[in-house]
Amino acid sequence: MTDLSLIDHLLFVLFCLIIPLGSMARTPHSIQEVEWTPEMKVALYRSNAIMLWVVAGILVGAWLLQGRSLAWMGFQLPLSEKMPQALLIALSFVLLYAVDSWRQLGTPQARARTRARWQSMTPFVPASWREFRAFIPLALAAGICEEIWFRGFCITYLVHLFGLDGPAEAVLVVALPALIFALSHSYQGGEAMFKIGVLSFFFGVLFLTTRSLVWPIILHIAVDLASGLLSVKYYYSTSK
């Protein structure tokens, strides 16, 4: 890849610092005071999906206009020689997600706590099959576009900024986008922010290991769809 350009620096500052960290201005109170009707949720899902595609389009377009290969952003199949490591990381991720889901929803008491947190911190999650159907395009957009954004662009930028000469640099280029992505979800509370950071770190490790967006995108979409299904099933107390 060629050296980083002024365009790269500007895009990183805007899309990997200002916009994500600017979302920290949203507070739980500002979300709670809104009466989230199904129509409002659907509108939110659609507008967020459009925004994600626009951001991904800008980043990919700027990359191509500079005469670079999209393979450098991870638009390629995973490295075959890294498949065992990728499978181990992916399976560890799935196990961690399953354990955490059980911790949140495995007992009536846990479901009550989780339901209260959803209704307080994230009342915009899908709570019906109609809302879930509208949520699917957002889950797909988030899985694809956020991985292009935070892994394909941000990690690749940081690799070329700091180098990748040892484990310290590897941790830095993976952890920094994960931290920024987690902070952009601060309105969901500390626990959710921590878990989002951990999930993002896994995605970053997969991206750096395989040099591909394939695994991170698949897992990201799967997590978002699974989370939507769980919220539909358990958002209301009538669910057993």
Write the layout of secondary structure elements.
Blueprint: H1 6-22, H2 28-32, H3 38-65, H4 83-105, H5 108-121, H6 129-162, H7 167-183, H8 190-210, H9 214-234
Helix pairs in contact: 1-3, 1-6, 1-7, 3-6, 4-8, 4-9, 6-7, 6-8, 6-9, 7-8, 8-9
Question: What does this protein structure show overall?
Answer:
The chain is mainly α. It has one domain (6-234). It is built from 9 helices and no strands. It has helices at residues 6-22, 28-32, 38-65, 83-105, 108-121, 129-162, 167-183, 190-210, 214-234. The chain is globular and about 55 Å long. It starts with 5 loop residues before the first helix and ends in a 6-residue tail after the last helix. The mean pLDDT is 93.
The description of the largest β-sheet is:
none
Oligomer: single chain
Helix content: over 70%
Strand content: under 5%
Shape: globular
Low-confidence stretches: none
What is the arithmetic mean of pLDDT? 93
* Total separate domains: 1
Produce a short descriptive summary:
The chain is mainly alpha-helical. The chain has nine helices and no strands. 75% of the residues lie in helices and 0% in strands.
Brief descriptors of the model:
240 residues, mainly alpha, 0% strand, globular
